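Objective 1b of the project was to move from sequence-level analysis to a structural picture of ligand recognition. The entry below was assembled by the postdoctoral researcher (A.K.) and checked by the PI before modelling. It contains the amino acid sequence of the target and the SMILES of the bound compound, NAP.
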Amino acid sequence: MTTTQQHKIGSGFGAHSTAADVLAGIDLTGRTALVTGGYSGLGLATTRALAAAGARVVVPARRPAQALRALHDIPAAEVADLDLADLASVRVFADRFLDTGRVLDIVIAGAGIMACPETRVGPGWEAHFAVNHLGHFALVNRLRPALNPQGARVVSVASSGHFLSDIRWADPHFRRGYDRWLAYAQSKTANALFALHLDALGAGSGLHAFAVHPGSILTPLQRHVPHEEQIAQGWITPEGRPAPGFKTPEQGAATAVWAATTPLLAGRGGAYCQDCDIAEPATTDDMLIGGVKPWVRDADAAARLWTLSSELTGVDAFA
Ligand SMILES: NC(=O)c1ccc[n+]([C@@H]2O[C@H](COP(=O)([O-])OP(=O)(O)OC[C@H]3O[C@@H](n4cnc5c(N)ncnc54)[C@H](OP(=O)(O)O)[C@@H]3O)[C@@H](O)[C@H]2O)c1
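Corresponding predicted holo structure:
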């Protein structure tokens, strides 16, 4: 199998582009998007931009009341209950959506948690792997019948956090000792591998998938990282301002929205993107610079993760 080459294609956009910039001139009237986490941080900026371009935006939420408050000024956004940590909740949400007969043109799998204290969900699964990866795996598989056969795109919001860990095949649930950063990193590697294999499976049926690193953006995602640690990491100044190189939420939403809509990615399915372009192979370990590490471009690992995820969740729409 050949995979899309990881080299820039010259999109004309970059790190400073916003979601509104990349959607200028794109009319999404009549299109429906689903944005997990679409009521906070990058997701909220994503929902706002897609709605401004004419799309209906379905926002599944584990805190629907909070989501309704956040989205009150976006009439094209609609909220429904979904907890990605709970596969029964994923099934109920997907069944209800499928019952409506509606078609999905875009799915942006953006919900996520980072650097949480050790948390177990479902049958004792590590929470980052379960929420960031397995929940989205089950959701997209269950929603497959709703994906537009004329061309749907799934965008998996990964991260340069993937630099820190491949999939821990021998211990994906950290039963032999927990590390909150490795747990986040593994889940973000999983997000990228998910897109790679989903694209391989879906390409024949008009479905394409992409992974994106949004950049570094101060959002509620950092809620589990103490202020002092954020200063030490170089994320914020001692006064609490974003460090140089950080993006606004509107800039952070741009790459996912670009990957979901740009004609430039036709024929380039499965690509890992950053700064509104295909990412180059990483040449440093500096996550602020980013790029893509080889283990998230490994088609065999992507297929192996698919099999593992299918066994764990009991779902595989492509079997
Ligand atoms: N911010 C960055 O610098 C950065 C960098 C690289 C990658 N990313 C990725 O970008 C994505 C969005 O991050 P963000 O910065 O926008 O964070 P955020 O503001 O914290 O948003 C995350 C969203 O995910 C939702 N969520 C968490 N657990 C959930 C669950 N069990 N079920 C359903 N929804 C759940 C949250 O809901 P609640 O509000 O109800 O908790 C929230 O709406 C994440 O995947 C993150 O890994 C972010």
